[in-house]
Amino acid sequence: MASVPVLKKVDSEGASSESATSESGSEERLRPSSNSVNTDAHGTSIRSNSSGGERFEYSGWVYHVGVNSIGHEYCHFRFLRIRGRYVEMYKRDPSEHPGIKPIRRGVIGHTLMVEELGRRKLNHGDVYVLRFYNRLDETKKGEIACNTAGDARKWMEAFDHAKQQAEYEFSRGGSVRNKLNMEDEINLEGHRPRVRRYAHGLKKLIRIGQGPEVLLRKASSLGTDGRLDAYFDADGGDVVEAHEWKCVRTINGVRIFEDVASPKCDKGVLVKAVGVVDASADTVFEVVLNPDRHRRYEWDTLTGDLELVDSVNGHFDVVYGTFDPRYFTWRQSRRDFVFSRQWVRGQDGTYTILQFPSVHKKRPPRSGYKRTKINPSTWEISNLSTSSPSNTARCLVTQTLEISPKGWFKWRNKHCQKFEKTVPYALLSQVSGLKEYIGANPALTSESSTTIIHSKVSDFSGSHSEFEDAEGADEFYDAIAGDSSSSDEGSDNEVEVNKEKKIKLKNISWAIASLTLKRSSAPESNELNSNVPPISLDSSQFHGTMKKAKDESDKNCWSSPDGSGFMIRGKTYLKDNMKVKGGEPLLKLIAVDWFKVEDCASKVALHPKSLVQSPEGQKLPFILVINLEVPARPNYSLVLYYAADRPVKKDSLLGKFIDGTDMFRDSRFKLIPSIVEGYWMVKRAVGTKACLLGKAVTCKYLRQDNFLEIDVDIGSSSVARGVISLVLGYVTSLVVDLAIVIEAKEEAELPEYILGTVRLNRVQLDSAVPLEA
């Protein structure tokens, strides 16, 4: 197997620490065709004008964190810059120190994965950590940290854009392909105008973050939402939900809703408060998560006294707090509570915070206080597009909770004032308090951590030629994972962290940075060879370890619903972001395996007892095998087998996906989840948005004979592990629908279609069958 191009560490004079051999040939210069700059309501976009496309440059200050060769943790302030598919790390801002050489540099390849590890304590403050690793070898890894969740998100999008640039340059072939030194070749027989336009010329420089001195003050600067990508879906979910929300009251500009579709029972009523806040989702997320009492006193009338008890990981913590006594009678006025918070950020930038009642050994019952078990609740914070000339950031904030129906119905129908003195009412009022607090603090919305600067193409040419002369043998994860105990890292502008987590801050005065509804039609004619007569696909001829459902009441079984419950991109999506209901799946689900394994099982299709290896399976024109590797104790594998009744066209989108590179597959393989029946908190955790799995978790592909297997390692993401652990706790009562889609990014590929679906009906964990070696 060919080695992956990586980032080499270089000394302070710019020389490589390893010998490099020059390669023959030179890359064609990429020059801009116009000087125009396109921006969208959220910041920037890579969509281009008619005369040409745009290349972006991203730069800003980050923390480079890790452990050196003698076991000490280090934390360095570093200036990171991405230009095209190239990455450079500096000790100084090169725009302020012309001629400075990078201490690390290299290329971004298709095997680079970026994982968001969430919040971590550093220097008595919170930072947001990104982990880089090789999808084929996770031992090669490294970490950087950002001051805010918004900056971490922007860096993830920046690396994603760089991978798209690498995909384009790889598709050009020739000497460029030899330089990238990649294993697979992309099969792009058709014209891909947007990728080509994107790859031409340097047009924008996007500065992420504000620099070390600002980082030390921990000042949030997320006033505007600098969303960098043009591929995320429009507002609204990708699933047709069963909830029917009715507005029953408005309070201080916040709407109060009740779910009138759910059957009424004694357990509780599902209600939510919804308000528009004039700030980005990043800003609101920081405010909601911050336990600082002085800030919470300004907007939270109920839980102002909060204390962080334990941080389980970057996306999960435990909090202790006390209630305001005015919501209780004098005999029970002193009450406290413990709850856990788990949060995720979707690929569209939406934050979801799940709050559960909890217990913790560090906070046993307190003398003089009555321990209260709070009801589960969720926060959902999503950015809204804006058409205002100032591009002022706005977001939609939704708090959902389940409350007792006793006082709720009296208050809703008769305006009973007693309900307004209860804890549920105080919780619903938090959105209103948050809206007013942020509106009264312009500093939260006026500061921007991203500035767009026009740049000349010559700025890129020099660095580009440097990489042409060097052997691209290292990738970015190697560079940031390198030992930082060497002399070139040991400057006086750094932070050293020892084993006891003690941090020494030294002089950093140099580091002040400059800122700145129809249904989709069936696609058989476009994707499958219509000149070949279809074969009969009878699922009774194929057998898996999980049975097929006899009817809707059957349990521990599977079925394949149509695509009408899912929303996919319509024919005019690139113009108006319109989505339509999906139609019948292109591929037919013929069997499902439910395995129990010690370690994550991959290459299931090669197992002698696999359906793919059976005589019936070998006769099929094409089989798509989806292996969802579920982390648990023990581990599980849910294997879905989708079959085509005719051969796949080589020049179709599905054909390109089947025979394309892993990078191309990662950018197109989309899963839409839907909890049809189940606990409402699980629905909120899973969400209703499509997910590009190749960008969220590690996916490995196996293409042989008449099949393509996709091994989806859900455990490769800490966020996905948290969500799946919640789902497994309720799995016996859940009805889950999944839809598989190849994302369409070009007008010729629209409308999208449903590739395959599956419904999992109340799965029993103990019914999993061991997978024999």
TrEMBL record:
GO molecular function: lipid binding
Coiled-coil stretches noted in the UniProt entry, renumbered to this chain: none
Pfam families reported for this sequence: EDR2_C, START
Stored Gene3D superfamilies: 3.30.530.20
PROSITE patterns in the cross-refs: START (PS50848)
InterPro entries recorded: EDR2-like, EDR2_C, START-like_dom_sf, START_lipid-bd_dom
Biased composition (Low complexity): 13-24
PANTHER family assigned: ENHANCED DISEASE RESISTANCE PROTEIN (DUF1336) (PTHR12136:SF47), ENHANCED DISEASE RESISTANCE-RELATED (PTHR12136)
Record's protein name: Protein ENHANCED DISEASE RESISTANCE 2-like
Species, as recorded: Sesamum indicum (Oriental sesame)
